[in-house]
Amino acid sequence: MMDWTDRHCRYLHRILSARTLLYTEMVTSPALVRGGALHLLKFDPSEHPVALQLGGSDPVELARAATLGAEAGYDEINLNCGCPSDRVQSGTFGAVLMKHPELVADCVAAMRAAVDVEVTVKCRIGVDEQEPREVLPDFLERIAAAGCERVTIHARKAWLQGLSPKENRDIPPLDYELVHEMKAAFPQLHLSINGGVQSLDEAEAHLARGLDGVMIGRSAYHTPWDVLAEADARIYGSERETVSPDDAVAAMVPYIERHIATGGRLHQVTRHMLGLFAGRPGARKWRQVLSEKASRDGAGTEVLDEALGRMREAA
């Protein structure tokens, strides 16, 4: 979800759901520790609970990056061992770490020793020619011994050569059963499943079978209201009133105005709002107006008003 789940996206998602755990896009430990890019840690207090997702493979550097994240106020520090991007492979980040479980365990141990907040891991079921039913239990056993108690498993193998990151999200077959088997084998671990889950119905089915959590990425981004608006009631049993798409737009206006007042641009926020009315009459006009006008110089919240009006006319 790099370049997607930035702080503006997370602010919108938190309006829709007060209870779901939000994750940052992956931030590399070198960027924080060597590059001093502390602006990447900024988030709005309303985003809690929110987890910082780190990429890296140096235990010392990751411990320092985790410390910076904890000091910034994140509720969880997550080590990404699942991203198949060439950019992260070259730095020995992401899914390539599935080949080095002992190093991941060292990273987890160093991060846990450095911070009081929970350290978690997101991984694949395996990479390349690995046999998932052999490597995944060993991987989980090693990181659990290092003190990791929460793991999110993307239920696909990653092919680091020959498939693009996009293809790695679609082509390798999903193996949900293996993830459920891992929950039975490691009952002490809080295990969440990721990959291909597109709705709350699907999430509830996995939870009903005994998994502890479900991570939804692209569907929550492209159809945020459909996935998030009823999550508090259906998953957490909350009595919080469901926020309508129109109410979500209204709640975003003060945030957008503050962003613009500090030098930001409208499209930096509204690009995350394109799918808010997905599947509803007039949604195409909503997307069209935002896409065409939000990036113009001087564009302000009047563009939202126009988009809503055009959508209603088309409905």
From TrEMBL:
Site residues by UniProt (Interacts with tRNA): N80, K166, R169, R284, R287
Matching InterPro entries: Aldolase_TIM (IPR013785), DUS-like_FMN-bd (IPR035587), DUS_fam (IPR001269), DusA (IPR004653), tRNA_hU_synthase_CS (IPR018517)
Domain of life: Bacteria
Domain called DUS-like FMN-binding: residue spans: 1-305
SUPFAM superfamilies hit by this protein: FMN-linked oxidoreductases
Record keywords, A-Z: Flavoprotein, FMN, NADP, Nucleotide-binding, Oxidoreductase, RNA-binding, tRNA processing, tRNA-binding
Name the record gives this protein: tRNA-dihydrouridine(20/20a) synthase
Catalytic activity reported: 5,6-dihydrouridine(20) in tRNA + NAD(+) = uridine(20) in tRNA + NADH + H(+); 5,6-dihydrouridine(20a) in tRNA + NAD(+) = uridine(20a) in tRNA + NADH + H(+); 5,6-dihydrouridine(20a) in tRNA + NADP(+) = uridine(20a) in tRNA + NADPH + H(+); 5,6-dihydrouridine(20) in tRNA + NADP(+) = uridine(20) in tRNA + NADPH + H(+)
Record: active site: C83 (proton donor)
Family: Belongs to the Dus family. DusA subfamily.
Listed EC numbers: 1.3.1.91
Listed cofactors: FMN
Purpose: Catalyzes the synthesis of 5,6-dihydrouridine (D), a modified base found in the D-loop of most tRNAs, via the reduction of the C5-C6 double bond in target uridines. Specifically modifies U20 and U20a in tRNAs.
Binding site for FMN: Q53, K122, H154, N194, G195, G196, G217, R218
Transmembrane segments annotated in the record for this chain: none
Keyword check for Kinase: no
Enzyme class: oxidoreductase
UniProt GO MF annotations: flavin adenine dinucleotide binding; FMN binding; tRNA binding; tRNA-dihydrouridine20 synthase activity
